Every structure is written in structure tokens, then in C-alpha cells.
Amino acid sequence: MKYTLLLVVAFLAASFVIGAPTTNDEDQIIITTDFFPDELSVYSSQNDIISITVPLNSINFEDNDDDSDPDIILFFVEGDLDNGEVKEYKGLYRYKNGTATKMLDDGTSSTASIDDSKLAFFGAKSGIYVYDNEDGSVKKYGTVDDSVIDIVQVNGTGPLYVLTEDHTVYKVTEEGNKKVAVDGAKDAQQIMLDYSGNVYFYGPAKKPKVVTENGVQEIVGLPENPAQVRLIKPPFVIENGVVFIVDNDIYTIFANGTSEKTDFKLDAKPTASAVEATLIQYYAYNKKIYEYNILTIILGELFDELKTFLEEKAEDIQSIATRSRSGFRA
Q1: What is the pLDDT of residue 29?
Q2: pTM metric for this prediction
Q3: Where is the signal peptide (predicted)?
């Protein structure tokens, strides 16, 4: 168990070091199956877990909430994966108080803004839906009826962005009643927003691009001809970039078009990740969801190999642990 704890804390340390370039191969942390111990599993399925969302708004984090160990609500999508590609969607679920409840049979994706609302938005084959945490209801949102396979939002007063099944990216406004295609984002396979509202996507060639107020720019400094890639919503401490997985390597890509390789390499690759809350993270691996509460791990049994790392990062950990959600809203 001690060895497993070391690996887990090292994995979670990505929240603090992600974005820093790799120094040399000896410093690499290789993510293996040891990072997914059964004791950290909170949910098991018969299907692959395709995506996970941890809302950073008032669904989970009230500004006046003094609870240091809240019951986190998750949204996740199940389906069938083949070589990293979604072959079939099998429903969108809410995980609350240890119980998973299917919210939409045809759900494909989920998102939530960083604000005071208790709303989340779901993409589905039948359009866009809104979830209200006050009563747990799910209702059709606006008039967009395209088959949506990805949906993202950062600022609650800002637009939604959706990716439709025909690989068109739309900016959705006016409470879901107006959609406008995003120029330059053609043949997108996935979309992601950073906390400054910049749109990231990649096409069939698996080369990521970013859409900013200055136009579309290709990200440079990445390997050529990757077999698999994936955009990941970053920890909230990263404002102008997102996480990008290239085969077994993890990069941070930025709105200025640059990229930096991190110290992590994936031998065991999660099918979904939710690191946005930073100190409480979720990963899906082998049809299970794992919860990593870094504060619980740190306050538990530690050993000599961790002391140096924790001493160096103690100020960062304390800052994030006490930081008000209002301080990192877009």
C-alpha cells in the first residue's frame, strides 16, 4: 500500500508541475496499472467510461461552504471504445452520494461553467439539455436539435460551444436558440476550452489548433503522425492552456500556439480524466472510475520518499486548498 500511495501522490502532483517542461528522461513518472488500486475505485461499469466532468460551480463548490470534504457530484458518459475512438454511446450518468443515475439515454457529453449557478449542460444525439441541481431535473435547452457529440463552457454568462456529429463546431448563444459556426474549426474531432475562453480542437490529422480573438493557430512542437490524441480540461490553475495527450505522452498546449511536454508518460492510459478541481481528481480506467483526494492522501500515512516533494509544494497545496472558487472564475 505504501508503494501505491507514492505512485498516486506522484500522479496527482501533475496538477502542480503540469506545464513545466521535461528536464530529462530520468525525471519521467511512468503511469502504470499500480496507479489504479481497487481501494480508490468508486464506480464500476460494464461499459467504457468515455468522459467525466466535475462541475466547478455551485453544484459542488459554494463560496460560503466550509465543508472541507464535500460529496462531489460527477457527470460521466459510458460507451464502447475501439482504439480510443467512440464506437457507441451508452448513456450519460450523474454520480452522487455513491450512486450512479442515468440522466439521458442518448447523452454524449457534459460541461459546467465556473460561476454561482447550479446548472450543467449535456450534449446528446437529440440536442442540448440543461441540468438543474436544485431539483435534479433535465430539460431540453433552446432549439438546437443537431446531434451533439461534445459540449464545452467556461463562463456562465458566455456561450456554449458544441461539436456536432458532422464535425462542425458551433457557438451557441441566446439561451440555446442561436448557433453560429466557428470559422476555421473544420472537421473537428473533439473540442475543449481553456479558462480564458479559447477554443482548442483537432482534426482527422490529429494536429491541435486554437481559436482565439486573433484567429486560428496551429500548435507547434508536438510529435508528428500520432496514433491517438486527446484533449483534457486542465486543472483550474492553468488559465491559457489545456492538456493534450499524444499517444503515451502528456503535453500542455497554450493559446499562443506553443506546447510543453510534461514529466508524465502513460503506460496505463485512462479512458477519461477529470483534473479540473485539482485537489480532487477522477480517472477512468478499465471500466472503473477512481477518486484521488490529494489532501486525504497527504494527511494519511507518508514515507521518506514523499517528504521532499511535499515540503517543496506545501505552499502551493495550501494556497489551492484555501482558494475561493470566485478567485479562478473565467
Answers
A1: 80
A2: 0.85
A3: 1-19
